[in-house]
């Protein structure tokens, strides 16, 4: 069963259980899938679905930060709930130690030694660690290891 089919089944289960928040959050996700399919005229793979979910989680995190700064706890909670509904569909994130070890290996393989090599390291790390770590975390780790 593909990831998208799993999400559609979860929507049905949420409807039966009358979990309106979960149902609505997952429906927003499926509408994002459909939008990409229409815009790009392609069938989505599981990797595409994961990228879309990651984008949606990032948007929710950005919105949650803004709501928190504005003191809108009601809207903040909605965003945090949606993130909680999306995260089970994402691959497990690397721990800080695992991320550091993976980037050290990339730095060694590329022969990087200074901040001048950051672009090469970031490019490779972003590709290899896609879905396993957020770009911001990768960037911070690369900076700390190259300094």
Relevant terms:
single chain, 147 residues, mainly alpha, Hypothetical Protein Yqey, Chain: A, domain1, Arc Repressor Mutant, subunit A, 7 helices
Order of helices and strands: HHHHHHH
Query: What is the CATH architecture term of the largest domain?
Result: Orthogonal Bundle
> How many individual helices?
7
Shape: globular
Work out the number of β strands. Answer: 0
Helix and strand composition category = mainly alpha
Q: What percent of residues adopt helix (DSSP H or I)? A: over 70%
CATH superfamily of the largest domain: Uncharacterised protein YqeY/AIM41, N-terminal domain
Low-confidence stretches: none
CATH class of the largest domain: Mainly Alpha
Distance between the termini: 45 Å
> How many domains make up the coordinates?
2
- Rg of Cα set: 18 Å
Q: Per CATH, what is the topology of the largest domain?
A: Hypothetical Protein Yqey, Chain: A, domain1
Strand content: under 5%
Q: Tell me, rounded to a whole number, the average pLDDT.
A: 92
- Biggest beta sheet attributes: none
Description of the molecule:
The chain has 147 residues and is mainly α. The chain has 2 domains: 87 residues, Hypothetical Protein Yqey, Chain: A, domain1 (Orthogonal Bundle), CATH 1.10.1510.10; 51 residues, Arc Repressor Mutant, subunit A (Orthogonal Bundle), CATH 1.10.10. 76% of the residues lie in helices and 0% in strands. The chain has 7 helices and no strands. The model has no long low-confidence stretch (mean pLDDT 92).
């Amino acid at each position: 069963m593909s990831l998208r089919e799993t999400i559609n089944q979860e929507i049905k289960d949420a409807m039966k259980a009358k979990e309106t928040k979960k149902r609505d959050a997952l429906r927003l996700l499926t509408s994002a899938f459909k939008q990409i399919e229409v815009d790009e005229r392609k069938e989505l793979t599981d990797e595409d679905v994961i990228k879309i979910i990651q984008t949606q989680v990032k948007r929710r995190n950005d919105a949650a930060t803004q709501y928190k700064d504005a003191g809108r706890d009601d809207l903040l909670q909605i965003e945090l709930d949606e993130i909680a509904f999306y995260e089970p569909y994402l691959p497990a994130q690397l721990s800080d130690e695992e991320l550091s070890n993976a980037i050290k290996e990339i730095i060694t393989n590329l022969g990087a030694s200074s901040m001048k090599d950051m672009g090469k390291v970031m490019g490779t790390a972003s590709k290899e660690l896609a879905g396993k770590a957020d770009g911001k975390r990768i960037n911070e780790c690369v900076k700390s290891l190259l300094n």
